[in-house]
Structures are given as structure tokens and as C-alpha cells.
Amino acid sequence: MAAETGTPTTLTLKSNDDELFSVAESAAILSVTIRNMVEDGCAGGVIPLDNVDGKTLASVITYMNGISAIPADEEKKKSYRDKFLSDKDFETLADMVLAANYLNMSCLMDAVSAKIAQVMEKKSVGWVRRKFGIENDYTPEEEAAVKEEHKWTFEGVETDDDN
Amino acid sequence: MEESVGETLIIGDLGDDIIPEILSLLPAKSFASAALVCRKWNVICNCILSSPKLYSAVSLNPSLEEAVNEVVDKVLSEPIRPHFALASIGPSFVLQEALVLIERNLCSKIPIIVSVAEGVIGKDVLTDKFVEVQWTEHTVTCGIILTVGFLPGVTVHLYLVFPEDGFIVGDGGSSNFIVRYQNTTTLAGLAGVSLLFTRDINKPSGVGETEFHVMFSTGVSLVGPTYEANIIRDEES
Question: Residues in domain SKP1 component dimerisation (chain A) (predicted)?
């Protein structure tokens, strides 16, 4: 085995659209889901990740490699996460939070959730519904009542655009 | 109105774990808009606010407007639907101006009480450290502490009480205060003010319950007169 020859162990991950990725085991076990597979000895061949597509997995692996290369310094890790997420659009963030949840990577999950919350700030209700694919199921009366309750919040929120 | 399907992301299946996680990270105003998205999100928001919350912040910024903005941003940086707001300001600030600035950022219907205090103690918005300032000992008398509270399933009312009513409690250290409640502003000198908490009979289901307990404490250091409750009544609505 690789571990015996002193070279780092490499795992092969397969996305749900059949892309294969090589990643160092030391980085991949940031995912508790993958770590459990490794510990149970079922990571020998290809690890299929049925809930993650290739594009998202590539991004997650970039993050795994990046964050595991940083020594135990929470400040530096945080600034890496901020930089890593800074140029991601909403759709990518949503894919990543699903992947992080599936892979059980709490540090990525927390960071992406916070980033999504940050993006949602100051966005209109219409924007949130569109982006999350949510149907407004309030009756007009109910909606008016909830709106009345939260009237104070609508100052400073964008009216209803997409950005 | 409807956009192309390609741009619409169907992450309604983001799951029952992830949405509450994200919504609980929103600041108060965005959190309130989230309740408007759909019934399910409203329920999630109510769950996140199922226990009483109190947030407070201190600013020693010499500009009243900046000081108010700083403390408001801080106390509204987490999910809360303020039921009442209490503020104490340094003697150099003007009560009426402080009230207008605070009210601008909060629901005009909730009780807001602003008083001139002898000092402030609390967490500084800039350093996140506890600060204690007594105006009498300092030349600088600018500063504000703002506290907002939320109690699930409870409605908060404000009452002014006058000495002839015979039940004012307090040390008189803040004899100057101004209150705003139900679109009415009252500048009060001799009166006292009380907040009345009542069970909200119209509260939507799924909202938590708030329980009140009464205790006496002389505190860790005795700085002023001590008080006793003459009477505590527990009345059915």
C-alpha cells in the first residue's frame, strides 16, 4: 500500500455525472462521510458520491486541498474560506451547501450557509422566492397580515430586482 | 413576471436541516422578510424564535446619530422581532433626538423608552468588550445603551404611572425619560413607566411560550437603595 512506501494515500472520488477525481486522503477526510468510508475500509476503489455533480465536486476538492494545506491557524483558515467563497454566485453556493451537507463537512457547511445568508440580506422577498424556487402559498389576506407584522423591516430593502 | 426556468434554482429540497441553519444566520430585518416567503419559512422562523431573546449594545460614539446606528445594527444583527426597546443615553445627548433616531429603525408600534442615565454598562459595539462608564466621573458624557427584547407568545404594552398612583419603583436616577408607544410620544419628568407583558391570545400556533418568574436579588454590589415588592398579583387576564 501507498502508506507503507511513504507516499500519501490518494482516493478516487466519482461524481454523479461519472467524473473521476483524485484527492489526497488527508484532504478528503475533511468530509466525515468519506472519513467513515476510509475507516470502514470501503474506500479502496472508487468512492461514488451520488449527490454531488462534477462541477461542484471539483470546487469542493479545491477547497479540501486549499484548507488542509493551511496549518492550524483559525484566522488563516477563515480568510481562506472567505476568499474561496467570495466569487461564487448564488447557484454555486446552493450546490455547495448541499454537497457540504451530504459530505458532512461542517466547516464548509457553516461558511457557505453564512455566505448564503449574507447574499440574502437586503434582497426582496420576490428574489428569495425565485432563487429558492419557492411558490408563494400565502393567501393575499395572510400575506398582508404577515407583512403588517413586519412592516418595520422593509426600509432599506431593495424593491424587487434580481441582483 | 416569470423568468426562464434555467435561471430558477430548485433548491426547495435544500432540506429541513439547511434552511433553518441559513435563516438563523440572517440579521433581524432580512429574517423578518424571510417569514414572508412562504408558510413553511414562516413556521421555520417562528421555531428559530421560540425562546425569549434580549440583545443589548453600548456605543460611546460622540455623534448621537452614529452611536444610535451602531447599537441598532448590533442588536439587530441576529434574528429577533423586537417587542420593546429600552435605551439610556448620556446627559450630552438629547432625549427627543435619540428617540426619533431609534424609532426610525424599529417598529413604531412597539414601546420605546429612552432615559438619561448616570452611566452605562454593557458590551461595546466596537471592541465587543464590557465597558462601564459613570458620567459623573467623566468629562465625556456621550454614549448610549440600547436593549431590545423579544418574548414569544407575549404582547408588550407600555403604561405611564404617576406618583399619585402610588406604586413607582426605582431610584429616580433617571428622572428624565421619553417614551413612544402607539404613535404617541410622551416626555415625562415626574411619572414612572412600566412595561406590561400579557399573553397574546391571537398568537399563531407553533410559537413558544414565555414564563415569568419573580426573584429578589440585592446584586453583587449594593449601589443604591434596595427595594421590596409590596405586592405581586397573579391575575387571570
Answer: 108-152
